[in-house]
Amino acid sequence: MSLPPTRAISAASAARAGSHALAAALVPAVLALLLTALPAGAAVRLPAILSDHMVLQRSATTPVWGWADAGETVTVRFGAAVAATRAGADGRWRVDLDVAGAGAGAAGGNELVVRGAAGEVVVRDVLVGDVWLASGQSNMQKPLGERKGERPTFNHRDEIAAAEAPGVRLFKVARGRAQRPADDVAGEWVRCSPESVKRTAFSAAAYFFGRRLHRELGVPVGLIDASVGGTRIELWTPSAALAASPGRAPAADDAVLYNAMVAGLAPFGLKGMLWYQGESNLIDDGDGAAYTAKMAALVGSWRGAFGNDLPFYYVQIAPHLYHVVRSAKVADAEAAARLRAAQAAALAIPGTGMVVTTDLADDLADIHPRDKRQVGLRLANLALAGTYGRKDIEAWGPRLRAMQVDGGRALLLFDHADGLFASDRKPLSWFQVAGADGRWHPARAEIERGRVAVHSDRVPQPAAVRFAWDEAAQPNLVNGAGLPAMPFSTAEPGTVLSDTSVAVPAHMPPAAPAAGTQAARFSEPAHH
């Protein structure tokens, strides 16, 4: 039964009055709740790298850190692992969690809980696995999809469509420069999917690396992409490491990318590092003579920042017409060969490995080879063999160990030489020989009982041999795994294993692979 009009008006007025009274009563309660919630975000703060969807490095000492009020007690819990500490005078705190046995499947669901005096921060959907940091310039930055002004990676549409991998997590570090080391970076973790690899423009080489590791190891893989095109190695190296380099004057942009994009990631737990850079140092310097020392400074400083002697796998620059289309500073076609030699010499740094790319350039006028899948797979093979101890994978191409002179011939002995052959079934290419006068001449080369015999009618007594010693060299010597031979010159220190100046990396697999060795070229397993 409806109320009389006057009564209805009175009831409506009463309802409005009641609403105002209720609102007035609720305001203090709501404010109290908000004020209670705010300190959890304000007093306890985590860096961006410790956030939803992340992968924690499976380790007994995985760092978790952040900021709180000075002197505040902070407790960190992840599953059964619990640790507590007190924030220092600067507000920073850190604990090391034992998450080595806290496995998490690809579906996620684990939570990292950080509690302070006023509240807690909860990080959700956390996996435990292996985390790799990928860095460098444009060839590392090149995304799986398209980028304006560049040719896209091979089969990019099909690869993006197949990028659903919830057990792989991606963190793209936002670009930035800083004069001092930052305590944080900008970025977020995302699940690997067709949408996320495209939206984040994630590194194609890093993606293919991580996907292969995930499939082979069956554990979650976290990938951090901190890369910027057109950048020199000095921009990625801490100032203190650069200052220790003899005879080098400081530059205004030294360390600016390290400060903004790497320093704020430390001390996040990593399994290893990937590096693809060198082109800008060749273009700007015109040569690569000092690049070995620069790599040593970078590797040593990054290992110091993240702790442990982390594996460091890198990519040698690919064939490209540097002195023709890139820079007047690159005086000749051998400058790129000298930088490659400097990169090869960096293998003297323990725990390193290098991918050779002389077979991957599809257009010599383009500094960006499109086959980033193969780059990623070869990096992954280095990690699988060198870091994870897989004996069934040959990760190295032939590398010259020694040269012997036999009359008018030079006999070359290689490591990782099982099944040597010419990839195009043509005569071996890009060999040169010199006599005592030091003048180089094209040479014929043949495979004989696992060795390569090199000779030239113009050099009756060989004194030195070099191979692929040109910016555009695309030689055809490969081993049974389909991996190209490493460029070398017996006249250059660091490119020959028997050089006393070069220490052979202790993790290098034996020359002859075990039975059942997987071919390195496009050898991913088919399962997802």
Automatic annotation (TrEMBL):
GO terms for biological process: carbohydrate metabolic process. GO terms for molecular function: sialate O-acetylesterase activity. Residues 508-528 are annotated as: Disordered. It holds the Pfam family SASA. Gene3D superfamilies: SGNH hydrolase. The keyword Hydrolase applies. Keywords: Hydrolase. The keyword Aminoacyl-tRNA synthetase does not apply. InterPro entries: SASA, SGNH_hydro_sf, SIAE. Residues 129-382 form the Sialate O-acetylesterase domain. This is Sialate O-acetylesterase.
